[in-house]
Amino acid sequence: xxxxxxAEKSQTYFLFMILAAxxxxxxxxxxxxxLDTNLSRSNIASNNKLVSSSSSSLCMATWSNGQAIRExxxxxxxxxxxxxxxxxxxxxxxQSANPDNILPLTDAIISLGKGDDIILNPSDPxxxxxxxxxxxxxxxxxxxxxxxxxxxxxxxEWKSRAEDFVFFSGGKVCGxxxxxxxxxxxxxxxxxxxxxxxxxxxxxxxxxGTTKKPEDLSCMIGQDSQGEEKWAGESQTxxxxxxxxxxxxxxxxxxxxxxxxxxxxxxMWERAVYDCVFxxxxxxxxxxxxxxxxxxxxxxxxxDMSWELANGLRGGLAVxxxxxxxxxxxxxxxxxxxxEICELSDIMFNHSLNIFPGKCRMLKEYLNYAKDKCGHLQGxxxxxxxxxxxxxxxxxxxxxxxxxxxx
Length: 407
Prior knowledge:
It is a single chain. The chain is of the alpha/beta class. Helix content is 40%, strand content 9%. It contains 15 helices and nine strands. The protein has helices at residues 6-30, 41-47, 66-78, 104-112, 144-152, 156-159, 171-174, 178-183, 242-250, 261-283, 291-297, 299-317, 325-336, 349-353, 361-372, and strands at 92-94, 118-120, 138-140, 165-169, 192-195, 219-223, 229-232, 235-238, 256-259. The strands form two sheets. The protein has a seven-stranded mixed beta sheet, with helices on both faces. Strands 6-7 form a two-stranded antiparallel sheet. Helix 4 links the parallel strand 1 and strand 2 (118-120). Helix 10 (261-283) packs across helix 11 and helix 10 (261-283) packs antiparallel against helix 12. The radius of gyration is 23 Å and the shape is globular. The relative contact order is 0.10.
């Protein structure tokens, strides 16, 4: 077994101090009042030059990065700067006890495995061992609108295995479950979570009536200044079983990034912004609209709403989306959004739309318009706004043109 000498620990301590200082500088910059960098596409298009924000008040936020301190403390105690990596193997997949609420996520996880997974309902007993392991991933594939009730009613056996739970976020099926997990103290570094960046085929969509295997939805969108590939829409995972999840996806040709919870959370909220904005902006049209249409014809509206939600996340949840998020969102829509019809769901309203902090004035105006003028969300309690839209402020022109007139 390798041992860590005092000299090595001293050197590592020095490196960690440099890292902590860099993180502190990064976050202080991230939370400073946004001026030039806070411009959306519509700001740039309308002014044709960089302008500073005209906000009447400056709101500064101070944030202490306790995560870096905890990671260093863990290193001193264990000599390891990361969580233990658990390998993939036979797993438990938990689906809804209601046959009408069984998600395609269940079939997706099974098809990505090696045929040795088992399916349980939340009321079933857990096996003492699975394969040759007493510890194994427990994939929670219940819909978000059932998740709170499931977690509330877990028996002691299931509660004792909470560290093995794997939760999913992202897309029309999984939505955002962070508010629910936070109620049960499950938003932490060791908890395994996944941003879904792969397709969830419906039963019977494959050859001979079978179910197609999930496909990777990530897309390469160019190279950065260092020549490294830039990707959008990747699956991402964190927590105890992050390596097991990543291996299962990689073995099936699906890209998956692994990392710590704080970085995963930023990716999760970026996906939440995409799911919300492109469905809301597209659903209020007279004709069926897909995500690619939104990126092409309603770019300015989608950009403005994206920045509104991003600013709310920064001020309300201390989540700053990773630099270049707007490019990734539009690239996803353009490259993977064809035939992805824009939809607004009553049952997912509180898990994909009514989840963002801040005033969200533009979002609420569009949601009220969708309900009052388009007949959507009739079963949802859409927050009212002081003034409602009588018509959409769309700058789109007739014909196959972008909002700015570019063909």
